[in-house]
Amino acid sequence: MSFNDKVVIVTGASSGIGAAIAVEFSGLGAKVTIVGRNETKLKEVAKKCKNPLTVVADITKENDIKKIVTETLNRFGKIDILINNAGMAIQASILAENAMETYDKVMNTNLRSAVYLTHLAAPHIVKTKGNIINISSIASLTVFGKDQFSYGTSKAAMDHFTRSIAAELASSGVRVNSVNPGPVKTDFLENIGISKDQLEATFEHMAKMTALGRVSGAEEIADLVTFLASDKAKAITGAVFVSDNGVLIKAN
Ligand SMILES: NC(=O)c1ccc[n+]([C@@H]2O[C@H](COP(=O)([O-])OP(=O)(O)OC[C@H]3O[C@@H](n4cnc5c(N)ncnc54)[C@H](OP(=O)(O)O)[C@@H]3O)[C@@H](O)[C@H]2O)c1
């Protein structure tokens, strides 16, 4: 599989799944734009990519999203592939005082940012007949954990966004797909407030929730993403690909 001369934007590339996706695309010949807020972590990922463009951006800010597109075009001249990966979760019950604040934050980060970036990038992806991959979650397909209504709702909406724009852009030769992971070992848990000393126990607990008894590494998700972005997947659009070690099929 080769992505020679393809230009790929990866949001949330400073960590976890996004970092693995950026490194894998770069290793396969792509020119990558890596996006995140944490400059130190982005620098570490940049070292593993070949001549990447690093854009320090908060994807909840419209001007930062514009910057991702303009800087990519200035540096590489086109956009072939967009990976909407940046995301986070905040736990809150619908009964909690901060329910709406939490909902707005999660929806802005996980959904609105991806919609706006896609809106700005899509005209350029139409020109290259490229494709778009959204990183969703199995939380879009089942209620996964307590107090996660905002996260699950953002990911369910993202799945339908994938289908909607896949239908819209098909006549322009652009494919749009979703990858929906189950538990993957990344900084996600730490970033939602699980303390370092609880991490191993949490991953062990998550492994027990899967039929295969394991948690994935981020590179397993990157393998699926690069396959879907490649010509090998030329028949695939509007699809939601679950990679969850069998969480959804596990009998209790
Ligand atoms: N790990 C799992 O088990 C799992 C399962 C299902 C789905 N997912 C999904 O996979 C995606 C990646 O998660 P991960 O597991 O790799 O988690 P992670 O290690 O916490 O990475 C999240 C990434 O999103 C970026 N991000 C978050 N808010 C941002 C903002 N406002 N502006 C710019 N970047 C932002 C972070 O960058 P900065 O901190 O540098 O801004 C970071 O690079 C997410 O969409 C998540 O919902 C993960």
From TrEMBL:
<dbReference type="InterPro" id="IPR020904">
    <property type="entry name" value="Sc_DH/Rdtase_CS"/>
</dbReference>
<dbReference type="Pfam" id="PF13561">
    <property type="entry name" value="adh_short_C2"/>
</dbReference>
<keyword id="KW-0560">Oxidoreductase</keyword>
<dbReference type="InterPro" id="IPR002347">
    <property type="entry name" value="SDR_fam"/>
</dbReference>
<dbReference type="GO" id="GO:0016491">
    <property type="term" value="F:oxidoreductase activity"/>
</dbReference>
<dbReference type="InterPro" id="IPR036291">
    <property type="entry name" value="NAD(P)-bd_dom_sf"/>
</dbReference>
<protein>
    <submittedName>
        <fullName>Uncharacterized protein LOC113492067</fullName>
    </submittedName>
</protein>
